[in-house]
Amino acid sequence: MNCDSRRRRSPSPAAYLPDDLLVEILTRLPAKSLCRFKSVSRTWRDLISNPANRFRFAQTLSGLFFFHPDHRARPPWRFCGFSSPERDGGLSTVDTALSFLPSTSYSEMELLDSCNGLLLLRCSCSSRSRHGRRRTRTTTSTRFYVVCNPATKSWVVLPQPSYAPGESRAWCKNTCNAALGFDPAVSPHFHVFQLVQHDDQCYDYVEAVDIYSSDTGRWALWKSRWSEHYMNIYFAKQMTYLNGVMHLATIYDNAVASVDVKGQSWKVTPAPLRVKDGCGRIAQSQGRLLFVHHDYPGDALAIYVLDDNEDQQSSSKEEWTLKRRISMADLLFIGPRDSPRRQGYSVIAFHPHSDSIIFYDPVADPEKKFR
Predict the structure, then answer these.
(1) Res. 245: pLDDT tops 90
(2) Residue spans per domain, the chain
(3) Which residues form the F-box domain (predicted)?
(4) Are 201 and 168 within 8 A, CB to CB?
């Protein structure tokens, strides 16, 4: 009887839906529901996990972590939430203070970078050594990296790289700059890029890159091969990760230097020809690399996109295309450049899944600091 009933049981109507229609239905779901529906069937799981579909699905940006310049503030970072539980499908509250970390044993914690839900911190511990009957000297141990997920409260301490993190003394290699690379739609593993810089009078040029892989649990030190393209690469304090490649903004030549997670591909992409003065800012949005330049004479924000060049006769496979040029006064709705209201505003991020720019106003009310 039970066997007959099982034979007569009809498959779910969803099983007869074509993949294109099913994907169209799934795009209308909130992020948390989409994650739950991965367990419905293998077909649903494959469709939801397919990189070709990921940008069509809900990509909820729940908030933004950013470094706070006030070193007296604890913790030395801030979090601004962008979505409510009703909007994002009931996502749990993020532990913005990172209280799950053993902070009592860390004398310092610096927020260096974030990427797709993970944070990169540089921490240090203090130890005391006693000399004589009453004399006590406090020393700080070697700094180390921690990668954590505020949503799941999971964290890991990374092994030491080839050069100690956070060094900036004149007789040491400069290792103050590091960035995080993570794309959960492609791989569950993350990478950390530590720049090894050499003091060259006013600026430090990049001599090597130490790359950590959570897959192998090891660091790999790679001597810079950017010198094959340019004499030296001078880092402009800003990096962004996209499609397995870390991109660095540079000064002097105003180019973008890139290296992949395996340390095999090194590339230097010249900045747009129209950009001559100052340093540009790089970012990624909707799967594309952006070069953003503030044109001060015109008081406008010029946004370039790096596109594949389909012209086979061109010597370059990629070229910058001006996507948009926006008047700062029109963008912020707060008056001309010399307006007192304009002095504090700065671009801090680009929305990863939409045409939105996030500005920060340090003098505004807490609820209006971001727009």
Answers:
(1) yes
(2) 19-24+31-58, 271-371
(3) 11-58
(4) no
